[in-house]
Write a structure and sequence with these properties.
By secondary structure, the chain is mostly helical. The longest helix is centred in the last third of the chain and has 33 residues. The protein is built from 7 helices and 2 strands, in the order ββααααααα. A two-stranded antiparallel ribbon has the order 1-2.
């Protein structure tokens, strides 16, 4: 990508490649971490709570996104983004909602694995801003929505897990 933000044309192919790959695929890491956390700790993991929380996060994201329109940076700056993307509403970042939700949910089971998911989420956030797909506020809002929905599901998850453990004993 050619940048002309400070009067200099700069081409950074290696950084561009890393950013493109991160912006497109880093969201898969938190999902993989949740699957691994589930396989390692089935007694305390509730797929029901995970799916309900994910649906809650999707609904909140939809409602917040419908509340106002926030043009993506590549539209405002009139440049081509590194990643092909429609010029739709960028607020909040649905990728970060998903990544933050999965990372936070995984943190309830395995903090070491969750650290990997949080690192991938941070890389995803930085890449989506670098690729001009989101403003930082889009990233912050998506992260907040995802994390809060995961925290909101934790009491429900604990109740289901406790019932499952009692029934097993």
């Amino acid at each position: 990508m050619d940048w002309n933000r400070s009067g200099f044309d700069v081409t950074m192919p290696l950084i561009d490649i890393v950013a493109i790959l991160s912006a497109k695929y880093a969201v898969a890491v938190p999902i993989a971490v949740v699957v691994i956390a589930w396989l390692r700790n089935r007694a305390h993991f509730s797929p029901t709570a995970f799916v309900i929380g994910g649906a809650l996060a999707a609904i909140v994201t939809y409602v917040v996104g419908r509340a106002g329109y926030d043009a993506r940076p590549f539209v405002v700056l009139k440049v081509a983004p590194l990643v092909t993307h429609p010029a739709d509403n960028g607020f909040p970042s649905d990728h970060l909602v998903l990544a933050a939700y999965a990372s936070t949910y995984a943190a309830f089971f395995d903090r070491r694995l969750a650290a990997i998911a949080f690192f991938a989420s941070a890389a995803l956030a930085a890449a989506r801003v670098f690729c001009l797909l989101h403003w930082p506020i889009d990233i912050a809002a998506g992260t907040l929505i995802g994390a809060l929905c995961a925290v909101a599901m934790d009491p429900f998850r604990r109740t289901i897990a406790a019932k499952r453990i009692r029934a097993r004993d």
